[in-house]
# Entry
Amino acid sequence: MRKQERRALICLLLAMVLLTGVVVFGARFVKEGGKWASFYGNSQIYTEGVINRGTVCDRNDEVLLECTSDGPYYSDDWEVRRATVHAVGDPHGNIASGAINIFKSQLIGYDILNGTYDTSAQGKRIKLTIDARANVTAYEMLGDRTGLVGVYNWKTGEILCMVSTPTFDPADGIPEDDGNGYFFNNFLDGTITPGSTFKLVTAAAVIDNLPGRDSFLFDCDGVNEYNGVDFTDVESHGEVDFRGALAQSCNGAFGELTREVGASAMQEYTEKAGLTEPVDVNGVMSARGSFTFPADDNVTLSWAGIGQADDLVNPCAMRVYMGAIANDGEAVQPTLIKSATFLRELTGGKTLGRYLEKDTARELRSMMKNNVVENYGEYNYEGLDIYAKSGTAETGSYYPDAWFVGFTDDENAPYAFVVWVKEGGYGSEVAGPIAREVIRTLEQNNS
Amino acid sequence: MENILYRILNIAQTYPELAREVTTVLRWVFVVLAAYILLLSIFSLLTTRCTPEIWGYFLVENGGNYPITHWENVIGRSRSADINIPVRTISGNHAILARRDDTKWILKSLSETSDTVVNGYKLIPGRRYLINTGDEIVAGGVHCTVAPASIEESRNNEKMRRLDKEPVAPWMILLAITLFQMLTIVQLIISMGEDLTPGAVISIVLLCVVMWTYVMVFKAMGRKGFEMEMIAFFMTTINLAVTSSWNPGNTVKEFVSMMLGLSLMIFMCFYMRDLERTRRLKPVLIGLSVIVLILNLLLGTIKYGAANWITIGGFSFQPSEIVKLAFICVGAGTLEELYQKNSTIMYAAFSLFCLGCLAIMGDFGTALIFFTTYLVVSFLRSGDLSRMILTGVGAGLMGLMVLRFKPYIASRFDVWGHVWEFADDQGYQQTRTMSFGAGGGLLGLGAGNGSLKYVGASSTDLVFGFVMEEWGFIIAVLLVLCIITLTIFAVMSIMAGRSTFFTICACGAATIFLVQTILNVFGAVDLFPLTGVTFPFVSTGGTSMLTSWAMLAYFKTADMRRASSLAVEKEEHNA
Ligand SMILES: [Zn+2]
# Structure
């Protein structure tokens, strides 16, 4: 019998297998239960493939989408519908990064204790951080053009405006995706030639790597031939120093600065600026930017340093970098859902770490102010303490893409922004006013 | 009574809001009751162990004095021998000393190289000899004898056993299960309304009556341990609720199967009190199993891809489920039998036959259950780990070969581990199980409120998800813990077991329950390919219910706690 006593331990081994499996499953259940429960096969919460409960509203409680067992109801205002559809998403899940998709389990009122059990069967109300009115302003300003406007609070990380065009009216029937990119959110999913906005990265590398930058001088003749290649500017800038080179966005000067900094430092500062990694927005990963800085090809390196060549930036990542400059070098993670706690308001958003040294950020900030004063005109942004950099990116089309990136620093309006208009023309003239109007709307609505 | 039920139905229909509030509260009540019932039973089962009884003494010259605590003992030099005499002239496993029902002792020499002499008579190895206490035994030159346990000793035994912790009294658990059952009926009326059949309600009420009757009758007969039955009655309650939610018309059938199973269990418990009688039944069981399986092969009809059903006179059942019962008994053996080659060969041949039949039927899940049980039982018998591993690997390879010819099963292996990518074809059942199951949260949506029931095989293969959705994750996990508890109990029973026959039976039954639960749960939630195996007691299906209950007899026979099991004759050692 004593032999059997020992051998019977094999039964306990089997019991351990069962127990381990249940523990593993339990861990998955805790971790992914919400995702499982909100799976489209769950007929408790889907009626004909459309989620049947939950309400999505903006930061000021304006209802953007109400899901009921009779089907989804959108805002009555067609402009709101078109301006917010990329943030809100469509019930069929065509827009993968839409709130209805990523916050599905919150929307259906899932929690681990009750699952999808809900006496009212009305689901939960989730409050997005976006401001519907500001989105409408952005949408109106973009008009029929392809583009994007992204604004977020660089202290709390709350995304206030996220508009991508072309867009569509979800109440008007979901379009067939015929290659028009209706479902594509340029802001999160796009990777775009950054043009001169990338000089903010090059400038950061210069500040940290060239101690003699104050005595830097470049004589711009408007053509700026280097090794047989022209780094043309719209006009001759004459003799420019480092600050002037950024204010005038002198390609010749920045080409030379890039070469002085060198390929490896450029690579390093692009990575430090977070432009080569995706940004996590409530679990949705933005697209990843890509850059090449060849050490053995000074011409291509120069182009890369002024935001051309193979440079592709993700607008969301660019905006986080703007936030980092505003926030003394520390970047804050963007979020699309309004946090219920005051703690968030007090302590600020979740930090993504230090992108820049404090002094570097301060110097960049001062140069971005200088850009506005010297080039874009402070009178154009009356009432806003704005810091910016425009961009006019050559993409091979007849009209270049217009960029305007930067931030404002008001107690009530700490906003970092990115505006891009495809084939819009000259950067600050086209994209600048869009940023201004959206921020003004935000200030009116949220002060 | 009917009146009360209709009144509840009326209220639920007139005030749906109120009814929903009731459900909201009931979900908590169910979880608390279930935790109380099961944790109390589990705790009692695992903490009330029994002191091994001393049946006599084995005295060895020069002072050795070994208490005999089992009915079957190996005498030998081997350290794992029950009576371990470290003398070189004695073989590793020298002889078997076994106690008979009539308190007489049997001695059987196992050693070919070292002699055993009783009162001057040299024993022929492999033959059984009746000996008396006080006879002079010379084993490998060492003088020894068997001394009876003195009356004083027996009294001490008695005292010791009285100090043992008693099993928990069943009354509070019974009340809790009753409350659980009545509230289940209320909840089902709220959720199902007029879809709930009177038969379903009556079945649950009758289950309650049967449960009380069972406990009272055997309590009157002086029995004390009812934890295993309480666990089984509770699991059956969940089964009836699942069936009522899934297809109320089937609930009566489940109840009847449970009654048949319970009767079979009681019969087996009484029958197995006599070890000799049980042993003699083995060839009969083998014969019947062979006939039933061959009938299955000839008349089998296909359900869910495997031809493991026969329908006779409108009554359909799964023969392989019933054969499980015989399979355990055939694999078990007394200590003597474990040293007999032909007994081992017969078991191997029988197993091979069963596996062959299951392979032809295409019932991969059940084949896996039989095979694992065979491995465990043969290991218990021989202790030969290397042979077990060899057999396992060999069969695994053969299994892979078979898979290539069974595309239906192979496709299930294909999606294993990434069912979400195949959510609408081969992964359909698993993804629904996880989705609806997660929708139940920890507390469940309430019996009858689930939606997994509209998915195929939800109440059998996917029943773990069914319970998760309607009863919540906590209760689902508690059900798994019940099975694990029965296993631990079976293993513990060996410490004080009478014969290896009973302990192998208990461990074999535990293995079957375990493997079934592993395959059922793991298959439903994508930890293993879906094999279509039932969860003991909980999955719907008459044959499964019947077998689960009958299987309980194997655990009861191993229950050596004082006066606790109906399968062990009361106080017999005092006679
Ligand atoms: Zn220039």
